[in-house]
């Protein structure tokens, strides 16, 4: 996949509301299979679509892309050996030492593309319209739907749904909203009204564990407020819950420092779909399912390339002694 294929895949992932990272090669030192402008998409599970480099660069970019998605902050990577770059590394660049036998180097910009929050406001009151407008101002995807027109298919487990029908078929609308199993479900109304609605739905057989997730009244308690202020209170609660990570499936962003750092081999990494091992010859991290191991004294060792595998096979003790000293 390359060129327009990468863009089409980005569009499809965005449409499905899935998080991914876009990696773009912005500089290369020959020889390197990655070319300036080469792009790849890395999904949250570590799948790569596109091309940014060979066996040395790919696992590093995938790991860093997953970290970028977790932090919600873009990162500029400089891949190569420290000797290639010297001491003058600009601020803001993450240096990843790799021992590639081709002696090539890459500079790769990795940016997160996270799904925007999805809010469904059900109702036709001034408060409902204000809430949808405010959410749109935050860059959220906000759908304003009349009660009779709402279906469970208009929400999903990553959606936030606010039922603001205010006495117009609250019970039927809320029952359809519960069926969507959204990350957040709130009902605009008094506690007494909410208790009556939830009791009615319980009598109709709606599972209690689903009804217990309904927030009544929706929003932070700001006391006696206007309709517009109720919209602000609801949005404030959604922002608070999202930022704290309390809404499953609704991603928050954790600002990064943006400063340059040296990535150590032992640095914590996000969960990968593959098991990983350290190449005992060059020190690179490699995926165990993409490397043919060499068994020595009952232990499997994995390598980034045939050269490292051969060097180890010629004198395994030398590399294992060095690993022990380190």
List the main descriptive attributes of the protein structure presented here.
326 residues; alpha/beta; Rossmann fold; seven-stranded mixed sheet; five-stranded parallel sheet; 10 helices; 22% strand; elongated
Describe the structure concisely.
Helices cover 33% and strands 22% of the residues. The protein is built from ten helices and 16 strands. The longest helix has 18 residues, at 227-244.
Q: What is the CA-CA span between the terminal residues?
A: 41 Å
Secondary-structure-derived class: alpha/beta
Identify the CATH homologous superfamily of the largest domain.
NAD(P)-binding Rossmann-like Domain
* Whole-number mean pLDDT: 83
- The radius of gyration over CA amounts to 26 Å
Order of strands side by side in the largest beta sheet? 3-2-1-6-4-5-12
Poorly predicted runs are 252-273
Please indicate the percent range of residues in DSSP E strands (runs of 2 or more). Answer: 15-25%
Instruction: Indicate the overall shape.
Output: elongated
CATH architecture of the largest domain: 3-Layer(aba) Sandwich
CATH topology-level fold name of the largest domain: Rossmann fold
Question: Tally the helices: what do you get?
Answer: 10
Helix content: 25-40%
